[in-house]
Amino acid sequence: MKESQIMLIQYxxxxxxxxxxxxxxxAISALAPTKDKVLYHYGTxxxxxxxxxxxxxxxxxxxxxxxxxxxxxxxxxTFLVFHIFNGFRIILSEQFPGGRSEKIxxxxxxxxxxxxxxxxTRTIVLMLYGGGV
Amino acid sequence: MQExxxxxxxxxxxxxxxxxRRYDPESGEPPKYVEYKVPVQMGMTVLDGIxxxxxxxxxxxxxxxxCRMGICGSCGMIINGRERLACQTQILELGKDLVKxxxxxxxxxVKDLVPDLTKLFRNHESVKPYxxxxxxxxxGEYLQTPEQRESYAMFTxxxxxxxxxxxxxxxxxxxLYLGPQALAQAFRYISxxxxxxxxxxxxxxxxxxxxxxCHFSGACSDVCPKGVDPALGIQLLRQLLTSxxxxxxxxxxxxxxxxxxxxxxxx
Lengths: 133, 267
What we know:
Chain A is mostly helical. Chain A has five helices and no strands. Chain A has helices at 3-28, 45-51, 57-64, 67-95, 99-130. By secondary structure, chain B is an alpha+beta fold. Chain B is elongated, with a radius of gyration of 22 Å.
C-alpha cells in the first residue's frame, strides 16, 4: 500500500472519529435513558445532578444493547484502532528510521492493533448479546 | 584586544564578541565554544566578522563561504539560535554584544562551522531535479507561457544553502526524511509544464520518509533567505498525491516549439 493511500485513510478516519465520537457522546448523554436510577443512592447526589443519571453503568449499558448503536461503536473502534496505531507507527518510524526497525515497528503495531480490535469487539458483542462484560 | 579600524570601511562602532563553536572531529576532542572580540563597523556582516577572526585572531577557524552576497548559499550557519546566511546578516542588526555562531543543525560537521552537506545533495539528487522528457534528444524548445512559469517560479530561487533542512524539526529525528529542500524542488519540476517525470519521482516522494512526514511547522519557510516557501510546496505536493489516489495525475508535457534547426539554421 502506498503511503499516500495510508495517509488518506488516516485523515478520513480522523474526520470520521470526530463524527462518530460526537455520536458516542450524544449516546451516553442526551440520548441515554435517565429514568432508570437503580444505582442512584445516597452519596452520589452530586454526580447524579451533574450527569442526570446518564453515566450510570446500568444506563450506559442499555445503549449497547441496540444493534444500531453496537454497529456505530464497532465502526468507531475500527477507525480509532487504525488511526491510533498508524499514528504510532509514523511517530516511531520517525524516531527510529531504518529498514529493519521500521519493519519491526510496523508488525508490532499491527499485532497491537489486532489485539485491541479483537478485545474491543469482544466487549461490544458481549454488551449486545451477553448482557455485560 | 586593541580595537582596530579597518581602513576604508569606516569607523569602528563597537566591539562585539563572537562565540564560535569549535569542533574538529578528527581531533577526538569534544566541541567547545571560543570567544573572539571583533571591532564592528557599519554594514559588517557576520561573515566579515568570522573572516576578521581568521585574519587577525585565529586562522584555524573554519567556515565555508564564496560569493559574500547571498547568492551561492555557502555560508549558512546558526547565528544567535537562528538559521541565517552569514553574509546576509549584519552584526549590528542583531542588536547584541554577543553573537553565538553554530554550524547548521541536522548535518554532520566537517570542522567548526563547515557542515557536511552530503545528505542535502543526496536528497536533492533523489528527486531528479531536472526536466524529464520521454524523447532521447529534444529537437526544439518546449513552449511555456509566462503564467505557466509563474506556477513554480518561486521555487526556482532555491540556492541550496541547506538552512531549511537545518531548521526542520522532522529532520532532527528522522534522518531519512527527504527534507524541505528536496521536496520543494520536486514540486518545482513536477509543476513545470515541460516535465513528464512525476511517475519517476513517485517512489521517493510517496515513500515512508517522503512528503507525508512533514509536520508543517513552517520552520523551513521561516528561515529561507531567498523567500522560498518549501512548506507550501510540500502541501501542494500532498494535495497532488492525494488526488492522485483517485484520479491518476497526467502530465501532458509542454508542446514542442519549432525545430531548432528551422529557427537557427543549426541542428
